[in-house]
Amino acid sequence: xxxxxxxxxxxxxxxxxxxxxxxxxxxxxxxxxxxxxxxxxxxxxxxxxxxxxxxxxxxxxxxxxxxxxxxxxxxxxxxxxxxxxxxxxxxxxxxxxxxxxxxxxxxxxxxxxxxxxxxxxxxxxxxxxxxxxxxxxxxxxxxxxxxxxxxxxxxxxxxxxxxxxxxxxxxxxxxxxxxxxxxxxxxxxxxxxxxxxxxxxxxxxxxxxxxxxxxxxxxxxxxxxxxxxxxxxxxxxxxxxxxxxxxxxxxxxxxxxxxxxxxxxxxxxxxxxxxxxxxxxxxxxxxxxxxxxxxxxxxxxxxxxxxxxxxxxxxxxxxxxxxxxxxxxxxxxxxxxxxxxxxxxxxxxxxxxxxxxxxxxxxxxxxxxxxxxxxxxxxxxxxxxxxxxxxxxxxxxxxxxxxxxxxxxxxxxxxxx
Length: 417
Known about the structure:
By secondary structure, the chain is α+β, with helices and mostly antiparallel strands. It has helices at residues 43-48, 69-72, 76-90, 100-106, 131-141, 237-243, 266-269, 325-333, 361-364, and strands spanning 21-25, 29-36, 39-42, 107-109, 113-115, 124-127, 158-160, 166-168, 173-174, 177-180, 189-192, 196-197, 200-206, 225-232, 235-236, 257-259, 264-265, 273-274, 294-295, 298-304, 311-317, 344-346, 372-373, 379-380, 388-397, 400-412.
């Protein structure tokens, strides 16, 4: 495929991608959109011009909505057909290629749009599915010789997080306040977190509603998953380590999580499937699956101090995940938990088996013992005020590149009472 829109061979947004998002166009109106290269396409106006008329199931202009929820609820038969139709329209020999009026009305440069949250997140769950990350944390906080808890290899561990504080890339995050218990202290103290961290994650988004009591099997899971985003699960390690026993994360996590604006479909990621890690011991029947369920997505994390330059501090890959998306969704619903359109399920921190592939400052500095050296000569044990963290994700194979762009967030000082 070759498009009439020119873009760099290193663009995340090739004609093979066709992601979906929501944007403010010319500071005037909001609509659902897609992207190719550095051009953002207003799908609502494209619909009005009749370019989707022949598609079954797309009877209303769902692209006029302020989120993708109404569109993705139409299900894979419709959303996949829309994506393929957009690819056809962007082909160099398509009717749209010579329709100058429609191109003028529907195609916008990046600087003419502002990206919004792509979906209304009804519910949010965070998993803990990287064996390398779980092992590193277990070594630091529990037993170096017996790092994983007894349940870890039997089920995808997770917790229900806070949906309301998931924000779009570029949103500034205030340093959280809370209780911590410094080493050697008899009593906890209150104040701003001194161990603020990022967590390198990916997240998938569900396209259906189910009833209480329903289950989604591993074989059915991918039909219920619309696509994926990059997910930065900001974490206050000192608040978390004091509060998490016995019920898990709370204030150390719920102050903010950042997501990338473009939802990349599972269909676009199909060429990059790869085998999952061997799971030992054998999992229970409802967690068994067939086929290649992991995806080879390259990940990078950059840290930039105020008025400084970016330093690449981590390079990992989503293919390392021990528990895959199908298993995560099957486990999440095996008890009859209902899901809703727009639900977001984060992978948990993605780490590899080498030091630079660790997906958090906690691991990269080994709880602050080995500070990172940045490009400007400064050092970091954890994230400081006015630091900006940027995560990038893309897949590439046989001349095809499909990416997510980036998610960025800057930490501001804690707000005074």
